Amino acid sequence: MKINVVKSVLDASDAMANVNRRRMDAAGLTCINMLSAPGSGKTTLLQKSLPMLPDGMRTAVLVGDLQTTRDAERLENSAAQVVQINTGSGCHLSPSQVEQGLDSLDLSAIDLLIIENVGNMVCPAAFDLGEHRRAVLLSVPEGDDKVAKYPTLFQKADVILLTKIDLAEILEYNFDRVYEDLAKINTAAPVIRLSSKTGEGVEAWRDWITAQRPE
Amino acid sequence: MKINVVKSVLDASDAMANVNRRRMDAAGLTCINMLSAPGSGKTTLLQKSLPMLPDGMRTAVLVGDLQTTRDAERLENSAAQVVQINTGSGCHLSPSQVEQGLDSLDLSAIDLLIIENVGNMVCPAAFDLGEHRRAVLLSVPEGDDKVAKYPTLFQKADVILLTKIDLAEILEYNFDRVYEDLAKINTAAPVIRLSSKTGEGVEAWRDWITAQRPE
Fold first, then answer.
1. A141 — contact with chain B (CB < 8 Å)?
2. For the CA atoms of A10, A131, A122, A73, what is the dihedral angle to 10 degrees?
3. ipTM of the assembly?
């Protein structure tokens, strides 16, 4: 009985995600959903990388957080349109929240929509929002054991960003351990090592974004 | 309708938490529930601090993770009894999982039970497991904006541990911002700055644990 309830919620959720995707397809835009633990550097990376996108690539960001508009404020100079979605006590963005976000954007003036999900390695991974691609961040200070501990998140990633690599040496980070764990669950997604602080790898991420076009 | 369903789940959950608490009270042990984002250093701090507890204080740890027994293995030399609970896709420990964990421990041989919750700043905060105290960790690399963004977590804390402070200088961490945000939601919980790497603050945390006795 309980399983049926969960299933029907997910079905409704997936149906709404498909509505969002078709709407974004019709508008000719590409949507990337960014997922990670809190504090892995999603906002900072966007501040750094969005201004590096090719001229004429018009961007917007939907930012999910339980509370505050801090992330949206940080991004207002980096993207043409920014919308903050506060989830209250919600542990992930839902497709219907994204639908409301789309309502408040001028979709005809967007080529790339970034969704910055709530910082959480578990719940957001289970919800398709209607995105075309998923980017998953893992910051070096979180430790080199997280791929094995949160496999669902990494399994569904289209690109994996290892962030804050400037701290790798001081933290004696074991990249091989991460690659070995990834090899068991996701061999398709490219892995980009980057540091928003030094700038290393940010161009590779910019190039990956630019290569994603609506199918 | 939907709200009623959620409510009844929480009521059942709270009832089970009370069962757990009474059972631990009867055994004369103190239970501390540790909550934080993934990679904030819960396991490392326990490895460092549990051996520093007073002689004769018998400890056990229930470790929650979606997958793997890595954290339990890391702790097997630091506590007399260690049990790993794998939640599968579950984003937090539930009181009934803790009840099963209690079944597999010899409660008569424990003075202190630590519950290391699933790494997640959102969902675990909503679930009483039957603990007597809550310890919430926030690591410096996660950023100084997290108290405002995840207020529920910090509101319910009995002690707040700012971890990995050895990285504060390199990351230009703003402690004042954290204290200002905490002043708005929780003025009762002591804040301990610590680093498992340098050892700074670990004794203060040890002393806080030692002072918690069953009421």
1. yes
2. -120
3. 0.87
